[in-house]
């Protein structure tokens, strides 16, 4: 089933990434319509975009585990930021 592309491959915000992480924890592989539900939860992204985002995440994890990519260097959490508060 094709879904509307409401995000048109726009960059992912920190808030959308956090919501994506939460959605992956909430919706299991067995959840019917998982990717559509993840897209709705994230907001502003199509089903195809969240699937592609997941595939890229999996590829990055594999590459990191095999030593092909360095571990990311994260900034310290900014607890006062609006993105963190809204996720």
TrEMBL record:
Q: Can you provide one Gene Ontology molecular function annotated for this UniProt record?
A: DNA-binding transcription factor activity
What is this protein's record name?
A: SANT domain-containing protein
Q: What is its main location?
A: nucleus
Q: Which domain of life is it from?
A: Eukaryota
Q: Which GO terms describe its cellular component?
A: nucleus
Q: Which residues form the SANT domain?
A: 7-62
Q: Where in the cell is it found?
A: Nucleus
- Which keywords does UniProt give here? Nucleus, Transcription, Transcription regulation
**A Pfam family hit:** Myb_DNA-binding
In its keyword annotation, does this UniProt entry include Amino-acid biosynthesis? Answer: no
The record's section on PANTHER family has: MYB FAMILY TRANSCRIPTION FACTOR-RELATED, MYB-LIKE DOMAIN-CONTAINING PROTEIN
Which PROSITE patterns does this UniProt record tie to the protein?
Answer: SANT
Give the matching CDD domains.
SANT
Against InterPro entries, the record matches this protein to: Homeodomain-like_sf, RADIALIS-like, SANT/Myb, SANT_dom
